[in-house]
Amino acid sequence: MNKTPLKPKEIDALKRSVNFDEVVLGYSESDALAEAARCIQCKAPKCVAGCPVGIGIKKFIYQITQKDYRAAYRTIREKNNFPSLCGRVCPAEYQCRKTCIFTKKDEPFASDGAINIHFLERFIGDYGMKNKISDVMGTGLKPVPITRPLSKFKVAIVGSGPAGLCCAGELVRNGIKVVIFEGLHKTGGVLRYGIPPFRLPRDILDFEINCLKDLGVEIDTNFIVGKTKTLDELFVDGFSAIFLGLGAGIPSFLVIKGENLCNIYSANEFLTRVNLMSAYKFPQAHTPVNEGKHIIVVGGGNTAIDAARCALRLQKRAGMKPDTTIVYRRTEVEMPARRLEIEHAKEEGVIFRFLVKPSEFVGDENGFVKKLTSLECTLGEPDASGRRRPVEKPGSNFDMECDMAVIAVGLKANQILTKVTPQLKVDKYGDVMVNPETMETSIKRVFAGGDIVGGEGTVIEAMGMAKKAANGIINVLRSL
Fold first, then answer.
1. Which of 80, 81, 97, 212 could potentially form a cystine with 92 if both were Cys, beta carbons 3.0 to 4.6 Å apart?
2. DSSP 8-state class, residue 274
3. Is 385 exposed, middle or buried (0-12, 13-18, 19+ CB in 10 A)?
4. Four-residue CA torsion sign, 95, 97, 102, 106
5. Crossing angle for the helix pair 69-77 and 117-130, nearest 10 degrees?
6. Are 162 and 191 within 8 A, CB to CB?
7. What does the DSSP assignment read for 4-39?
8. How far apart are CA 181 and CA 272, in angstroms?
9. What is the pLDDT of residue 137?
10. How many other C-beta atoms are found inside a 10 Å radius of the C-beta of residue 394?
11. How many other β-carbons are positioned within 10 Å of the β-carbon of residue 367?
């Protein structure tokens, strides 16, 4: 057996860093068969426990080895409505791959020997898309039996991000009428405004969403629940239950001097301009975005990596010499970003500076940022996150040229809805509080999941909460 995972083909770094085309090309059939053959079909597969939605990983990989791709597709869709999507953006090295038997004990993330489960899932998802077998209702591939007594109910889904889409899929497959209310003019939430096209092509996202529409899910855009209508008004409109998948859309900042200078973006604004509003196509698209000669991105998560890779592409697009740097106050080991994305960023030319803590942005006489002053750090004892705390080195101040910066240090809960719904209990961070068993909030028949509950997390974690909430909704509706 080959002990080394098969790496999928990728676009060359020099070619891909000048455009927003997809970087990873995925597995061919022969690649998928070779990688699936590495799985030893454990009697008690730990990889399943590592998947937040509990996909039958062992089963679908075996079905790949038998070239029964339709069955593999059905197996995945029993637990996950969006295999092509998740196969591209799930941080598998921290989840299913990390629990693979080939991952060495005490590894901080999946070892080089773990099965590439996510690439196999993507292969099957793309097979289903290309062969038009994704309409599970029309092909006999019914992962969940339709329960007709539930068809008299109507459920409102607030938000069309991963949590909202997943909850909608679970409910509609049980015969429940579902309407998604999305505040933006396009669907997808963070999948569209946060993740760049070179990681998640828009045709893939649109296809997955259209599958839900084909199943009967209605989507109403430009509809802000809490402004357009309140939760009470939705109940008056005949909805029997409501799911809140609002996400976490309020950016956090460093709270340092000079952070309000011109040409300093929150990652939320920067990525929304680039991804949702297609600023990288300007002037064909009407939304501009500034392009600095010396760009600094502050942060160590996937959002920081996405912002840096977008910024570098914009520099090249403008004919500039690429100079995009990520500064992070810990080391690469502690970075929460996906290993694959870090590797891709390095290949494309993004510079990484570790153990650096920004202390002040300095501007010119016109109020535009010109440099960043920072301190060097060492690592101390672990903090509440379990990672070693960065400790400043006294007198280690140094300056970096910076005429544009992106702050990517996390997101907080959007409070548009919670502020006008005082009976909806939230914690000190503004996140909605739920019963962890049912995901029901302090308001009866109102459920929640995703980043609005647990803070900023992964796509698949949001979907795991949404599936639990869908089960809670179904149980409540059955009792009515």
1. 97
2. I
3. exposed
4. negative
5. 110
6. yes
7. SPPPPEE--HHHHTTS-S-SEEE--HHHHHHHHTT-
8. 19
9. 41
10. 8
11. 11
Distance in angstroms (rounded) separating the CA atoms of residues 225 and 159 = 9
DSSP secondary structure of 64-93: HHTT-HHHHHHHHHTT-S-HHHHHHH--GG
Give, in degrees to the nearest 5, the angle at Cα 356 between 353 and 358.
120
Regarding the domain delimited by 148-249+413-479, which CATH topology (the fold level of the hierarchy) does it fall under? FAD/NAD(P)-binding domain (3.50.50)
pLDDT of residue 134: 54
Q: What is the pLDDT of residue 81?
A: 86
8 Å CB contact between 250 and 162: no
The pLDDT value given to residue 454: 81
How far is 38 from 295, CA to CA, in rounded Å? 42
Taking each helix axis from N to C terminus, what angle separates 459-479 and 162-172, rounded to the nearest 10 degrees?
40
Spatial separation of the C-alpha atoms in residues 419 and 224, rounded to whole Å: 13
Tokens of 11: 């676009």
Rounded-to-integer distance, Cα 327 and Cα 324, Å? 10
Please state, in angstroms and rounded to a whole number, the distance separating the CA atoms of residues 174 and 335: 40
User: Hey, which residues does 309 pair with through a beta bridge?
Assistant: none
Question: At 305, which helix (H) or strand (E)?
Answer: helix 302-317
Which residues of the chain carry a pLDDT beneath 70?
Answer: 1, 106-110, 134-148
pTM of the predicted model as reported, rounded to 2 decimal places: 0.93
What pLDDT is attached to residue 142? 46
**CB neighbourhood size of 262 (10 A):** 13
Instruction: Give CATH for domain 251-411.
Output: 3.50.50.60
Decide if 9-130 and 251-411 have a common fold. no
Extents of the domains making up the chain: 9-130, 148-249+413-479, 251-411
Q: Which amino acid is at 114?
A: A
Instruction: Dump the DSSP string for 346-413.
Output: HHHT-EEEESEEEEEEEE-TTSBEEEEEEEEEEEEEE-TTSSEEEEEPTT--EEEE-SEEEE-S-EE-
For 217, the 3-state DSSP assignment is coil
172-182 tens-digit pLDDT: 989 999 999 99
Residue with tokens 């015969």: 175
Structure tokens at 338: 């996906």
| Burial letters 424-440, b for 16+ CB under 10 A, else e | bebeeebbbebeeeebb
pLDDT at 385: 78
* Nearest CA-CA partner of 440 in 479, 401, 382: 479
In the chain, % helix, strand, coil (3-state, to 5) comes to 35, 20, 45
Architecture of domain 9-130: Orthogonal Bundle (1.10)
pLDDT at 257 (0 to 100):
97
Structure tokens at 113: 């020997």
**CA terminus-to-terminus distance, the chain:** 55
For 299-311, how does the pLDDT look when each residue is reduced to its tens digit (9 = 90+)?
A: 999 999 999 999 9
Please state the separation of Cα 290 from the chain's center in Å: 25
